[in-house]
Amino acid sequence: MAEPARRAPAPEDSELSSDDPYRYGSGLRRVRLPDGRVEVREVPLTPEDFLDPQVGDQLTQNSFHHEFVTDLSDMIRRRYESNPDVLVSSDLKMRWGIPGLRNPSPDLAVIPGIRDKKAIRRSFAVQKEGTKPCLVVEVVSDDPVIRSKDHKEKVTIYERAGIREYLILDPPFVTPSGCFQMTARRLDPKGRYQLVEPDGQGGFLSETTGLWFCLTPDRQEVYLIDTETGKRLESSTELAARAALAEARVAREAEARREAEARTAETEAENARLREALDRLRKSGS
Fold this sequence. Notes:
31% of the residues lie in helices and 25% in strands. The chain has helices spanning 63-79, 126-129, 144-161, 236-285, and strands spanning 2-3, 25-32, 38-44, 58-60, 86-89, 93-95, 108-112, 123-125, 135-139, 165-170, 181-187, 193-196, 204-205, 211-215, 222-226, 231-232. A hairpin with a 4-residue loop joins strand 15 and strand 16 (231-232). It starts with a strand and ends with a helix.
């Protein structure tokens, strides 16, 4: 449910002000008026709404968050494209069916055991579906209050919901080191989260999906390895760029062939003219 900002900031104010009531986004709520009537009105959201948003809420996130989550979910969806019983969701509200437990909308969730992958869902009812995510990924916001929700409250939520693996990605602009940071947790046999030790480069290998979340040597970018194939996953943008390069190469090769054929034709025409000239010289001298 994370969306770009509800409204574009005014030209003289390029950032959402801390006193802007809509800095966390907006949603439609039933409001009781002084005369007793009830109206549906747009209201500002609060950090608590990130833990339990309503369907249709527009949660404000920065442009990096939106683009990064879009690319990440695109890569993983492509990986499971041919698998009919694995759903990869983004910003889809979870409904655990557990009294008192809040129902967030994870940035990314990998859900195995799906009966109808193509069903249109406005939310995901775990008890009705008969399955739940095996891996949830949250990409941290640059807002410290929202960041705290990912690192604290959501840990408790996903643990109680029985999510086997929970991965938090902190982008470089929110960490003291200025590098990507991964914090991963995995349920132990008692159903309690234990921190997963990162690999030597700070990455995380998901046991439930076989996806290896890796960092570049400078830890400024995240890439994914499919451990079943050993290949790096590519986004639609990367695939389109590679296809465009391949198409351009084919076009260049075709153009080079046409030029070579044209040069050959010119050479053959010139040779024919020379042969005709020699024939005329021989005839005139005989």
